[in-house]
Design goal:
Elements lengths: L1 E9 H14 L2 E8 L2 E7 L6 H21 L2 E9 L4 H7 L1
Antiparallel strand pairs: 1-4, 2-3, 2-4
């Protein structure tokens, strides 16, 4: 199941928040919006090893840093993957 949430944030906090979201690991896609226009959309691989995420994130974070310098306020739209709780599955059996 996929859950979408929107976070409004200032430009100077943008890079830190995107780094935090990438490291959470259950993120499928991050979209950065300014005035309801998409500035950057980043699909993330689910279940990728930490080393691969670090390598993939470097150019993305450079682009996010450049965007942060240009905008004063933006919205981050996050698409998360909700993992099924294994304990609730056991209860159903």
């Amino acid at each position: 199941m996929t859950i979408k949430e929107k976070i409004t944030i200032s430009g100077d906090q943008l890079l830190g928040k995107v780094k935090q979201l990438i490291h959470e690991g259950n993120i499928r896609r991050i979209r950065i919006l300014h005035n309801d226009k998409t500035l950057l959309e980043v699909p993330l691989t689910i279940g990728a090893p930490a080393a691969a995420i670090g390598i993939m994130a470097a150019p993305v974070l450079a682009a996010v840093g450049a965007l942060a310098a240009l905008v004063t306020e933006c919205t981050i739209e996050v698409e998360r993957v909700e993992e099924k709780d294994s304990s609730s599955q056991k209860d159903e059996e």
